[in-house]
Design a protein that fits this description.
Strand content: under 5%
Largest sheet: none
Helix content: 40-55%
Order of helices and strands: HHHHH
Number of domains: 1
Radius of gyration: 11 Å
Number of strands: 0
Structural class: mainly alpha
Number of helices: 5
Length: about 70
């Protein structure tokens, strides 16, 4: 199996286009939960594309609360 010491959200941020994460194209509950736990949700949202999807925070909360 894939072994990596980095949390999934940090690995994804390195190797994934950040606007893609912000625009909600990555819907992995594990990724979203780790982002919330590490306090990275704001960091993921620090791109102007967040303004294209104003409901992004509600989307994130719904996914984490599932």
């Amino acid at each position: 199996c894939f072994e990596n010491k980095e949390p999934l959200c940090q690995w994804s941020a390195k190797y994934t286009d950040k606007p893609m994460i912000i625009n909600g194209n990555i819907k992995s509950p594990q990724l979203l939960e780790e982002a919330a736990t590490l306090g990275c949700a704001d960091w993921f949202a620090m791109d102007q594309s967040i303004f294209d999807r104003l409901q992004w925070y509600q989307f994130l909360k719904r996914k984490i609360d599932k």
